[in-house]
């Protein structure tokens, strides 16, 4: 299970980096979308992504996550 958590954290970090680049390019909407994805794939670090969002949108909040990545896909 630890390996899965590490992979989720790495994926979340990647989306957070892309969000930072989007902010630098002036695309705040894309940054919000990328941070939402980061929080979806890496829910353990959601507070980190909330803080990052508030650096460019002080009143902003990530949308609620309605399921984990494991909930996605075809039924088994």
Count of the domains = 1
Helix content: 55-70%
DSSP strand tally: 0
How do the helices and strands follow one another from N- to C-terminus?
HHH
Q: Rounded to an integer, what's the Rg over CA atoms? A: 13 Å
| Count of alpha and pi helical runs | 3
Summing up helix and strand content along with how strands pair, one would put the structural category as mainly alpha
Sheet with most strands: none
Low-confidence stretches: none
**What shape does the CA trace take?**
globular
Percent strand equals under 5%
| Through-space gap between termini | 20 Å
What is the residue-mean pLDDT, rounded to a whole number?
A: 90
What is the structure about, briefly put?
By secondary structure, this protein is mostly helical.
How is this structure best described in words?
The protein has helices spanning 2-24, 28-41, 46-56. By secondary structure, the protein is mainly α. The chain has one domain (2-57). The longest helix has 23 residues, at 2-24. The chain is globular. The mean pLDDT is 90.
Topology readout:
Elements lengths: L1 H23 L3 H14 L4 H11 L20
Descriptive keywords:
76 residues, mainly alpha, 3 helices
